Structure formats: structure tokens, C-alpha cells
């Protein structure tokens, strides 16, 4: 049943039609699960599943809970298909740290921190200034 369902492709708009308590589908990692029969038994409660269904994509909410491996293996029995044209975040973005929840503009992205440049130039400038002062005091000021 699960294998047969996994072959079905759904448009997000089609999944959105199944967001009631009598017919509740959730999308997790591009896969579509019919959790209607699981609503009452879900240890996290009926409401969270219903809310996740209405939100369109339950992946983030599902991951935030940190479901156990036994919860994850249960999912297969509710699988009805996949989202059409779904691209996993790690492929759609060039950086692979995105998928583990790093904010898009974090450390190793974008231009180098301007402070690094200043940190390098400022000591050089101070050194140049010190040499100029030494030169002036030793050779020029003494001469007068
Ligand atoms: C087919 C999909 C899902 C299955 C099979 C499932 C299964 C389970 C299971 C077995 C647990 C008990 C704890 C564990 O073993 O991790 C659980 C807890 C929970 N689940 Fe789900 N879940 C699903 C989807 C979701 C979604 C979409 C949400 C969205 C927010 C959610 C929220 C929660 C919460 C809040 C708990 C309670 C955690 C706690 O009390 O510590 N679940 N789920």
C-alpha cells in the first residue's frame, strides 16, 4: 500500500484540499502523508497535525519536535505520495549548511568581514607612523 502510494504525485494545491479533521494530509520533506486515521492516536495531539496540514509544509514543525526513529518508521504506513517537482533544500541551495538550519547569511557566506581588512591595515599604518616619527626625530628635528 505504501509503495503503491509513493508513486503518486500531487500538486501542492491538491494537497491543500485535504486539510480538515475528516481528511488530513501533511507534507514532510516533499512526501505526502494521509494522517486522518492517525489524528486521534498522535502522541503530539490532533491539533498540531491539523495545523501542520493547513500550513502547507509540515517539515520544519516535524523536525523541530525531534521525532524518534520509531515515529519516523511509522510514517511509511501513512504515505500516499510525493509533491510534484519537489526539490530538497540541500539541492536547491548551493550551501549544504542551510538544511541543518543555519541562517542563510551566516559566517561562511558573502564577502569577507570588513573588520578583517581593518585589523590588517591599521597595525601597518601605525607602524608606518612610528617609523616616520622616529625618522623625523632622529634625522630632521635633530638637525635644527
Ligand atoms: C506522519 C507524521 C507523523 C507521525 C507518524 C508522528 C508520530 C509521532 C510519535 C510516535 C510521537 C511520540 C514521540 C516520538 O516517538 O517521537 C510524536 C510526538 C509528537 N509529534 Fe508527531 N508525528 C507526525 C507528524 C507530526 C507533525 C507534522 C507535527 C507538527 C508539529 C508533530 C508534532 C508532534 C509533537 C508536538 C509531539 C509531542 C512531542 C513531545 O511530547 O515531546 N508530529 N509524533
Automatic annotation (TrEMBL):
Q: Where is the protein found, in the record's own terms?
A: Membrane
Query: Gene3D superfamilies, alphabetically?
Result: Cytochrome b5-like heme/steroid binding domain
SUPFAM superfamilies cross-referenced by the UniProt entry? Cytochrome b5-like heme/steroid binding domain
Per the record, the similarity remark reads: Belongs to the cytochrome b5 family.
Q: What is the organism of origin for this protein?
A: Eragrostis curvula (weeping love grass)
Keyword Transmembrane helix applies: yes
The Cytochrome b5 heme-binding domain is annotated at 7-84
SMART domains from the UniProt entry? Cyt-b5
Alphabetically ordered keywords of this record: Heme, Iron, Membrane, Metal-binding, Transmembrane, Transmembrane helix
Show the segment(s) annotated as Disordered: 92-112
- Alphabetized InterPro entries for the sequence: Cyt_B5-like_heme/steroid-bd, Cyt_B5-like_heme/steroid_sf, Cyt_B5_heme-BS, Cytochrome_b5
According to UniProt, the name of this protein is Cytochrome b5 heme-binding domain-containing protein
Q: Which GO terms describe its cellular component?
A: membrane
